[in-house]
Amino acid sequence: GTRAVELLRRGGEVFGARASLGAARVVERDAELALQGAASVRGVIVDVSNPHCVLFVAREELARIALLGPLLARHPRFPAGTNVELATPGPGPARFTARVFERGVGETAACGTGAAAIAVAAAETGRGALPLSIVLPGGVLEVDRDAHGEIWLTGPVAVASEPRA
User: Fold this and answer.
1) pLDDT band (50, 70, 90) for residue 163
2) Does the reported pTM lie above 0.85?
3) Overall average pLDDT of the 100-116 stretch
4) Cβ-contact 78, 51 below 8 angstroms
C-alpha cells in the first residue's frame, strides 16, 4: 500500500530518508524448522507485509546464509517462500549485524523489511529494544516503532543511476 516517506536534508541536499513500513508482527517467537541435510534451526517468524524468518546466531555463523538462506526460503513451512535473515548482536549496543537472503533473489546487500523484521524480532524476544541499528553489507538502517505500532525505517539514499530524459 501507500506509505509515508520523509526526505532528510542537510544544507538543501538530500542525504537520507525515513519511511513508514506499516505495522509488523511476530507470527511465531520460537519456530523449530527441520532442514533437509542439516540440523534443525530455531527462528522468529515475522510478518512485515511480507514473510521473514529471523535466526539469531553467533558472529561466525553469519556466513551460513549461503546454506541456510535457500533451505529456509523454500521450507515447507512457507508455501509462498520467505525472506531469511541471520543476525548477531553488535558491534556496540542497540545494533545487530546481519545478512539477508531474499526469496526469489538470493543474498542481497540490504533489505528494508528484513532490517525491520530483525529489529521487531529482537524487541519482541527480549534481545534488544527499539530503536535499533541494523548493520547490513550495504549500509546501516535505523529501525524504530511509533506510539501507534508503525515501523519506521531510516537510512541513507543516493541516486543509483541518472534518470532517462
Assistant:
1) low
2) yes
3) 96
4) yes
